[in-house]
Amino acid sequence: MESYSIETRELNFYFKDFKALSNVSLQVPTGSIFGFLGPNGAGKTTTIRILLDLFHAPGGSVKLFGKSYETARSAILKQVGALIENPSIYKHLTGRQNLEVIRRMVNVPVSRIDEVLRIVRLVDNADKKAKHYSLGMCQRLGLAAALLTDPELLILDEPTNGLDPSGIIEMRELIIRLNREHGKTIFLSSHILSEIEKLATDVAIIDQGEVLYQGKLDGLRQGSQLTELRVELNHVATAVQVLKTGNFTISEQNGQSLILPIQSRQEIAHVNKLLVDAGLEVYGLSTTAQNLESIFLNLTKKLDQ
């Protein structure tokens, strides 16, 4: 039987009259990199705050490592490390001094500081003041702080947000190493689908507070019968309006072509007929396998309506 580091059941949460979460049930397999996907405002951070016992859901239940906060709060939190939004760093202190402040609070051996600095590859900059750190280095320092207690589970909220391309690559490689070499289960929220596609073994997609899909990343691709149709033609703007009238959605467009999700060969013929009947010149039709971004956009129905 598969074990789960995180299990939630029918979580509901309100901000006054606004329902932020609606019956959110998650199962995060132990040892996985679990991608928690959703557009901004979908409910990702609210869910994470509930997982960390910062918010209390009036409905539903939360278990980490098979335990609830009501009976084992201290034991749970010792096994969890978190990086939520931008880490809190004392800019006038060095990286090492920042970690020492936290080390004293969590009461771990001094030797652990050097261990986590090696893991996040900040040894060479450990004695530089944090005000001179790049954003990527600050993120890695925040992750080092989360690793001080050697937690079994890491909860990361948009860890690559705002990073430049090299910083994103560094963070991606670090997350993979933490999972594969250090055995960490990683719960990773993001709206950057291309990064999740490169990292995650399992995913959940949330939109407007509801989970729309949960399971293996490969299962998401296989479960979607959609492919993408690229249409090359004259007058793309006119074609977009014609296809919208025919209840098709457009995922991408430029001056010479447009792309839309389709479910069958019959839909290809229908698209072609709509365009030709509208007097447009169709130069080419080609299909490709749909990527995660297109599947996500279709699920959340946020294609170009």
TrEMBL record:
Keywords in alphabetical order: ATP-binding, Nucleotide-binding, Transport
Gene3D superfamilies per UniProt: P-loop containing nucleotide triphosphate hydrolases
Membrane-spanning intervals of the chain: none
Example GO molecular function: ATP binding
InterPro entries: AAA+_ATPase (IPR003593), ABC_transporter-like_ATP-bd (IPR003439), ABC_transporter-like_CS (IPR017871), P-loop_NTPase (IPR027417)
Domain ABC transporter, residue spans: 6-233
Protein family according to the UniProt entry: Belongs to the ABC transporter superfamily.
Protein name per UniProt: ABC transporter ATP-binding protein
Organism: Roseivirga thermotolerans
